[in-house]
Amino acid sequence: MRFRTTSTDGTRAAAAALAPLLRPGDVLLLCGDLGAGKTVFTQGLAAALGVTEPVTSPTFTLAQRYEGRLRLHHLDVYRLENLGEVLDLDLPELLDDDGVVCIEWGEVVLDELPRDFLRVRIRLADPAEAPDVRIFEADAVGLSWRARAHALADAWHFADSAPMLPC
């Protein structure tokens, strides 16, 4: 599934549209280059889940926890040098929590994750032509997410996005 947004507000709206589909225990992997919008996406998700405190990148703290309709664990594993450090984050415990785990640079810890997750790749369009345009590609991995794929496609068909052809 592919779509694009044309502003940071559009990126937050894309994440907010996902929030009603989330269930306790869901895992989201956010992939993309530096500055692609992973934290902005998480901010929109957190706001839609009722989180009232500011959501910032956990690049240096590695993990943040926010309380809302569902607990949100926001991780940034960019700085991890080996999978052993995943244990330092208590990732297995976070995955067993009834919250939602949103992992920036999640491809780094892919081997440590359950086989049911939503991978969202975010990339910048050509900044010279369209500085605020983000291209999103989402992959529903596992039975739970594949069962929600149609609802997800419907949720991401919103005003600030220009739907693109499926991958």
Task: Please sum up the structure shown.
With 167 residues, the protein is an alpha/beta fold. Helix content is 27%, strand content 24%.
List the helices and strands and how they pair.
Blueprint: E1 2-5, H1 8-18, E2 27-32, H2 38-48, E3 63-66, E4 72-76, H3 84-88, H4 91-96, E5 100-104, E6 117-124, E7 134-141, H5 143-147, H6 149-155
Helix pairs in contact: 1-2
Structural overview:
The chain has a single domain (about 1-155), classed as Rossmann fold. The protein is built from six helices and seven strands. It has helices at about 10-20, 40-50, 85-90, 90-95, 145, 150-155; strands at about 1-5, 25-30, 65, 70-75, 100-105, 115-125, 135-140. A hairpin with a 5-residue loop joins strand 3 and strand 4 (about 70-75). Helix 1 packs across helix 2. The model is unreliable at about 160-165 (pLDDT under 50).
Roughly how many Å apart are the termini? 6 Å
Structural class: alpha/beta
CATH architecture: 3-Layer(aba) Sandwich
Do you know the CATH topology?
Rossmann fold
Rg is 15 Å
Low-confidence stretches: 159-167
Class, according to the CATH hierarchy?
A: Alpha Beta
Can you list the strand order of the major beta sheet? Answer: 1-7-6-2-5-4-3
CATH superfamily: P-loop containing nucleotide triphosphate hydrolases
Mean pLDDT: 84
Helix content: 25-40%
Quantity of strands, as a count: 7
Tally of helical segments = 6
Oligomer: single chain
Compute the number of structural domains: 1
The amount of beta strand, in percent, is 15-25%
Query: How do the SSEs run, as a string of H and E?
Result: EHEHEEHHEEEHH
Rough outline: globular
Biggest pleated sheet: 7 strands, mixed
